[in-house]
Design goal:
The chain is of the alpha/beta class. Helix content is 36%, strand content 19%.
Length: 294
């Protein structure tokens, strides 16, 4: 794998603009050109099913023939790792900026070493301002966050509690004059309190990747996405859809439907086979590509 030390004069153009750039960067892999659109995707380590589905949907929809979009994140467990993997699945290049050096002996988190290898092997890269073998520490993550914010044209925040470290990246992005996008969530979800507050403070609310592309004047067909699923739903299926305004536990959904248990279980199984709903972590939710006919 290609290893390099990048001097300030060779930094990506956006990173040169920030008030506190790194003294130098260490890199493994290929750094995309300045012609690319760099989008940071950050969020909670303790993500919900909703956050995971939203992240996959938004990143997938950023694949576009008119521009190369590069996904930038911090390799952390949670939304960061999901964003990197979603980019790989969609055929997008991705840059991981961990809070540690890049040698595998210290790379943080250990559980994402295989993901880091895939990122490099797929044409992306790993970046860090730390020495190759410097381990992560509490002081290294805020410093890492400024590189994510500084490198990107815009930063997407997907799930963040009101005191989440993720908000540090959003604040830095604002300080650097970058665009900040936030995914709205339930007012009852602690994981969405930070993102909802960002929207109140002026962040651009988004519900899909096309919102971001339009913001930057990019149109055209979105590539490599699943086609929207469109059905003429039966009254019983429509009742399920109406109940799934957000992911809920199966027992709660069954109580809402108020139909016999055997009938409800059969209905849910049929809708899952169609690809309309999914079950994960004890919750049932709509798939990201369902298009409900009026």
């Amino acid at each position: 794998m290609k290893r390099d030390i990048i001097k300030p004069q060779n930094f990506p153009a956006l990173l040169k603009e920030i008030s506190d750039p790194p003294e130098e960067l260490r890199a493994i892999g290929e750094l995309p050109s300045d012609e690319s659109l760099f989008i940071g995707v950050v969020g909670s380590r303790r993500f919900t099913t909703y956050g995971k589905e939203v992240c996959n949907k938004i990143v997938r929809e950023l694949k576009n023939p008119e521009a190369e979009v590069v996904i930038v994140s911090g390799l952390a467990i949670g939304i960061d790792g999901i964003a990197h993997q979603a980019a790989l699945d969609a055929g997008l290049r991705t840059i991981a900026i961990p809070g540690s050096g890049l040698d595998e002996e210290v790379l943080h988190p250990r559980s994402n070493i295989r993901l880091a290898r895939k990122i490099v092997g797929s044409g992306g890269c790993l970046l860090s301002e730390l020495d190759w073998n410097e381990p992560a520490g509490t002081h290294t993550f805020p410093r890492r966050n400024r590189i994510i914010a500084g490198l990107c044209h815009g930063v997407v925040v997907i799930e963040a509690a009101s005191k989440s470290g993720t908000l540090i990246t959003a604040r830095l992005a604002l300080d650097y004059g970058r665009d900040v996008f936030a995914v709205p969530g339930s007012i009852f979800s602690a994981n969405s309190s930070g993102t909802n507050n960002l929207i109140k403070e002026g962040a651009t609310p988004i519900t899909d990747g096309k919102d971001i592309l339009k913001f930057y004047g990019i149109s055209g067909e979105v590539g490599e996405t699943s086609a929207n699923l469109s059905f003429d739903f039966s009254p019983a299926e429509q009742k399920v859809l109406n109940a799934l305004t957000e992911p809920i536990e199966k027992d709660e959904l069954l109580r809402k439907l108020k139909i016999p248990m055997a009938e409800a279980s059969s209905l849910l199984m049929e809708m899952e086979l169609k690809g309309v709903i999914k079950q994960s972590g004890g919750e049932i939710y709509l798939t990201a590509n369902v298009k409900v006919q009026p």
